[in-house]
From TrEMBL:
Protein's UniProt name: Uncharacterized protein
Cross-referenced PANTHER family: CARDINAL, OXIDASE/PEROXIDASE
CDD domains: peroxinectin_like (cd09823)
Residues where heme b binds: 174
């Protein structure tokens, strides 16, 4: 995928993927039509894609193909990919009816532009204010202009994804996930709970009647956890654990540890420690653990102090997650700073931003 919020997760960012997902008819994306007439994402029939299972292939049920190879990583993510693909096809159908003289490529590209604009608007209007807070969004002028004017794009702004964002800051959401996920059955009107790791690389319920509706209801009815250094054991002991293995020894942990991976990734990428990023964000730089009283809660402070021998050794991921959250956001001040900066650059440095006047064929304000 690209660094931009441009829908590349739907459309791909290389010719092979972009070609694979298209119908090349009426500007639409490929879909798998179920026997009862529902549209699903096209199947990924590669037995080595890390998702497909022999017992499901025997039932002619496969994982799904999309513009992003990670589309099957969890059920709710697969569902979002499907909803956006359906949205593209709906827009393409409407454009075709209004403009019957348009050819496939024209319809496809225009629908793609609209989808990218919708993604950008939703991200900045609905998502960011929840994460970093309305105050930070307003201070960085990130709110959509709502048709009042065009946005000036800055040629000297680099919109590339920062190392601190990719390897640490935007991984804050891993702490939000509950260990047990509420799973609803839209057909029966019932609900049950399933261990989080059993939803990973397991999109097969979408084949069932009501499967998509059930997944959407499940995604919208689960409560997130608070941002903190404490992460469910579903992600620290059972990440990508194959639920078909070790049936006779259910208490043997054989999955990965996502938190360890996040911390080690930061070290592998050469990220400076937590105190350096506090200084970078014009926040107070602590010289001792005691100076973090009030920044971290007392219990967290004692826990981390027992792990790290020196305050300057604390990893960015560990330290930033330990911070008390901002008044109107769900992350602390360091991650608020780094996430806010990244989304500001993505907006100011994207010449195809949907509110930009200087882009080729701009949208009307």
């Amino acid at each position: 995928v690209t660094a931009f919020i441009d829908g590349s997760v739907i459309y791909g960012s290389d010719n092979k993927t972009a070609t694979m997902i298209r119908q090349f008819k009426s500007g639409k994306l490929r879909m798998l039509k179920t026997p009862d007439g529902r549209d699903l994402l096209p199947p990924s029939t590669d037995p080595n894609d890390g998702c497909n299972r022999p017992q499901e292939r025997a039932r002619n049920r496969y994982c799904f193909a999309s513009g992003d190879a990670r589309a099957n990583e969890n059920l709710h993510l697969t569902t979002m990919h499907l909803l956006w693909a359906r949205q593209h096809n709906q827009i393409a159908g409407n454009l075709s009816r209004v403009n019957p003289h348009w050819h496939d490529e024209k319809i496809y590209q225009e629908a793609r532009r609209i989808i990218g604009a919708q993604m950008q608007h939703i991200t900045y209007n609905e998502f960011l204010p929840v994460i970093i807070g309305e105050t930070e969004v307003e201070s960085r002028n990130l709110k959509p202009l709502n048709g009042k004017d065009f946005r000036k794009i800055k040629e000297d702004v680099n919109p590339a994804i920062a190392n601190n964002f990719a390897t640490s800051a935007f991984r804050f959401a891993h702490t939000l996930l509950p260990g047990l996920m509420k799973m609803t059955d839209a057909q029966k009107g019932t609900a049950d709970y399933v261990e989080l790791h059993r939803m990973l690389f397991n999109p097969y319920s979408l084949y069932s009647k009501g499967g998509v509706e059930s997944s959407i209801q499940s995604a919208t009815s689960n409560n997130i956890q608070m941002t903190s250094p404490h992460v469910t054991s579903e992600l620290t002991r059972h990440l990508f654990e194959d639920p078909t293995e070790h049936k006779d020894k259910p208490f043997i942990p054989c999955g990965l540890d996502l938190v360890s991976l996040n911390i080690q990734r930061g070290r592998d990428h050469g990220l400076p420690g937590y105190t350096k990023w506090r200084e970078y964000c014009n926040l107070t730089k602590p010289e001792t653990f005691e100076e973090l009283e009030g920044v971290w809660n007392y219990e967290t402070l004692k826990d981390i102090q027992g792990i790290y021998s020196d305050i300057d050794d604390v990893d960015l991921y560990t330290g930033a997650l330990a911070e008390e959250t901002s008044a109107d956001g769900i992350v602390g001040p360091t991650f608020t700073c780094l996430i806010g900066q990244q989304f500001q650059r993505l907006q100011e440095g994207d010449r195809y931003w949907y509110e930009a006047e200087d882009q080729p064929y701009p949208f009307s304000p």
